[in-house]
Design goal:
Number of helices: 9
Family: Belongs to the LysR transcriptional regulatory family.
Radius of gyration: 25 Å
CATH class of the largest domain: Alpha Beta
Low-confidence stretches: none
Structural class: alpha/beta
Distance between the termini: 45 Å
Strand content: 15-25%
Protein name: LysR family transcriptional regulator
Shape: elongated
Mean pLDDT: 89
Largest sheet: 5 strands, mixed
Keywords: DNA-binding, Transcription, Transcription regulation
GO molecular function: DNA binding; DNA-binding transcription factor activity
Strand order of the largest sheet: 4-3-5-12-6
Number of strands: 12
Order of helices and strands: HHHEEHEHEHEEEEHEHEEEH
InterPro entries: LysR_HTH_N, LysR_subst-bd, WH-like_DNA-bd_sf, WH_DNA-bd_sf
Helix content: 40-55%
CATH superfamily of the largest domain: Periplasmic binding protein-like II
């Protein structure tokens, strides 16, 4: 990088790259539009690269600009983490760990890990974001989270994955449904029912596994509703909009308005895994991974 290029140029570039409008970017940065235009020209001249195509009406990124925007977002997030970590150390805080998770991971796995980690590192600070599987993968790649808890089988090469819980599936039924653990013989008994499913976007591999269960039972389900939240599934089942199949761990802490039948005799299982970037140097992540390896 040229010595003439400063941190502020990167911030100015990202503002214009996000807005694709110099006046809006200038307003966002609280500087004048001519001043912003001058800073961008200075950056381009310093780099010897054209970052924007512009005319009187439109602004767009060049190929070089698109690449720079993508890489800066990742690496400036990492720089922010470094600066924040230094501040936390100065303030006497052990560190910071950002979690992404799907709902079922919060039922037992994450709370147990947090208790163990905080007992050893009482000053650690946690931040949590409930996210679907694919958004967690994206957030890990962008270094927005340190670790994710997912139900997914295929991950990008730059990530590590470790299975931590194998789970059975369970039927979710309204309390008044005629089937119970005593008279349930197989899923085929429910072929005429409406099913409420986790949306395919929740996890394509998880969705495929659920469809395999139906295929082995000899029918294609009538799917009446799709959602990414288990709480929505339970509410819909409770009010007779259909029935569902969920990981058995999602039974924990559920109210008494639905009932469950564990599908013990099917071969399919769902795996909850921890996922993290191979390049993440957060020291608190390595501490968390020590506890995960002991599960």
């Amino acid at each position: 990088m040229s010595n003439q290029l400063e941190y502020r140029h990167l911030i100015y570039f990202l503002a214009v790259a996000d807005e694709l409008h110099f006046r809006k970017a200038a307003d966002k940065l609280f500087i004048s539009q001519p001043g912003l235009s001058r800073q961008i020209r200075q950056m381009e001249e310093s780099m010897g690269v054209i970052l924007f195509d512009r005319d009187n009406r439109n602004v767009s990124l060049t190929k070089a600009g698109e690449y720079l925007k993508k890489e800066l977002k990742v690496n400036l997030n990492a720089l922010d983490d470094i600066l924040n970590q230094a501040k936390r150390i100065n303030d006497g805080i052990d560190g910071n760990l950002n979690f992404g998770y799907i709902g079922s991971a919060m039922e037992n796995i994450i709370p147990e890990l947090l208790v163990k980690l905080r007992n050893k590192h009482p000053n650690i600070h946690f931040r949590f974001q409930e996210m679907d599987n694919l958004n967690q993968i994206s957030a890990l790649q962008m270094k927005e989270i340190d670790i994710g808890f997912v139900r997914i089988e295929t991950i990008p090469n730059e990530l590590n994955i470790q299975p931590i819980l194998e789970d059975t599936f369970s039927l979710v039924l309204p309390l008044k449904h005629h089937l119970s653990e005593q008279n349930f013989t197989g899923l085929k008994q429910l072929q005429d029912e409406n099913f409420i499913m986790f949306d395919k976007s929740y996890s394509p591999s998880y969705y495929q596994k659920i469809m395999e269960i139906f295929k082995e039972s000899g029918f294609t389900p009538n799917v009446s509703h799709r959602t990414i939240h288990s709480s929505s599934i339970y509410k819909l089942v409770e009010h007779d909009f259909g029935i569902s199949i969920v990981p058995s761990s999602l039974r924990t802490g559920i109210n008494e308005h639905v009932k469950f039948i564990e599908l013990k005799d099917i071969s399919q299982r769902t795996i909850l895994s921890a996922v993290w970037s191979k390049n993440n140097r957060n020291p608190m992540l390595s501490k968390m991974l020590e506890f995960i390896s002991g599960i």
